[in-house]
Amino acid sequence: MFGGLKGAVADFKLRHIDKAVPPYRLPGSLRLKALLARGKSEPWQRPDPAPGDTAVLQYTGGTTGIVKAAMLSQRNVLAAMRMSQAWLTPALEAAPKVAAPVGIMPLPLHHVYTLYTTAMLLAKGGCSVQVPNPRDLGSLIAAMKAQPFDLMTGLNTLYAGLMAHPDIGSVDWSSARTFIAGGTSTHRHTAEAWHKLTGHWIAEGWGMSETCGAGTCNPFPVPGFNASIGLPLPSAIIEIRDEDGTALPTDMPGEIWIKSESVMKGYWNKPEEDPFDDRGFMATGDIATMDAQGFVHIVDRKKDMILVSGFNVYPNEIEDVLSDLPGVLEAAAIGIPSDRTGEAVRVAVVRTDPDLTEQQVRDHCAQHLTNYKRPAEVIFVDELPKTPVGKILRRKLRDA
Predict the structure, then answer these.
(1) Beta-carbon-side half-sphere exposure of residue 248 (alpha carbons within 13 Å)
(2) How far apart are CA 284 and CA 276, in angstroms?
(3) Secondary structure letter of residue 185 according to DSSP
(4) Helix 188-198 with 315-323: angle, nearest 10 deg
(5) pLDDT tens digits, residue range 203-257?
(6) Rounded Cα–Cα distance for residues 189 and 337 (Å)
(7) pLDDT in tens, 139-194
(8) What is the architecture of the domain spanning 57-302?
(9) Which ranges carry the AMP-dependent synthetase/ligase domain (predicted)?
């Protein structure tokens, strides 16, 4: 955040030159400086919040539709922080004690992932190094080199992008204890390459704005790549249910339902949108399985599922296959209308090798995917549309 002339210049560049922010008006808005001036004349009163009072309006990412504000209470935020601290403690205790843990946060503070991880670090007397623009990989690498750090958060696309950057080899990994990933599935190729580079496996986890970011994570020490989002964090209860709300046996795909002290009160000004059942479990819209050891494996977002000739096709599976094809930086799979099969698969591919052909993509998919999961359409793009934190905007690819 900037003030004065520097802030005005940065704001003008973002809005009018980079076009990074769509045009907007906020009727009745008040600048922070004016707000502080107005409050100067008022007597200060110590706040006395109750555990159930709303502490944060956390907006959802909007990757599948219109954004909503999750009402997170004081209790929700504290619970998420404590749950994450309990998970992180073994990682911090596995190395010589440091005065204050340092975390590299290459995602904006408005994102729930960074919000609760930062709160967790501060509660331990630590430091959260903010790198607001995750696409500026040069600035991120500079932050990683500026001081020893203990942990870093990121997404699959961010870790893959870092490994492709020419300066990544100059980073000192000796102080690092864990790297956390969430937001999107971590691909095997990314995890294995990151381990080869740093000596650490990525600890993949799962959470939502509605859970204050806390849900599951792989336990420390991370044993390797297991294609799992880990175990429920302490005090979280997760069930995998079918369309009728019946709990499913192990290894059967269904929707994740979660109950936890970190789960939101509800959606702000949207009482009609009630994702809770009468036992206090919340429907998440994520499809997953749970194995006999309790590890949860994400299949995909319910809304992203593609229905081909009556068969369920999950984009994550196709994208995992494409990530192993040499010459592919990243890829996204979506469903498009088809007169023959109802829906068909379209894949958008970002190449690192300009000579990679459509036929090579099709041949690779034919080797690793059953017929109905193979792409009917292959397009090459310079970049995939993403949210500011790196999540792929599939709906924009559908409209392309």
Answers:
(1) 21
(2) 10
(3) P
(4) 50
(5) 999 999 999 998 999 998 888 999 999 999 999 999 999 999 999 999 999 999 9
(6) 31
(7) 999 999 999 999 999 988 899 999 999 999 999 999 999 999 988 889 899 999 99
(8) 3-Layer(aba) Sandwich (3.40)
(9) 37-268
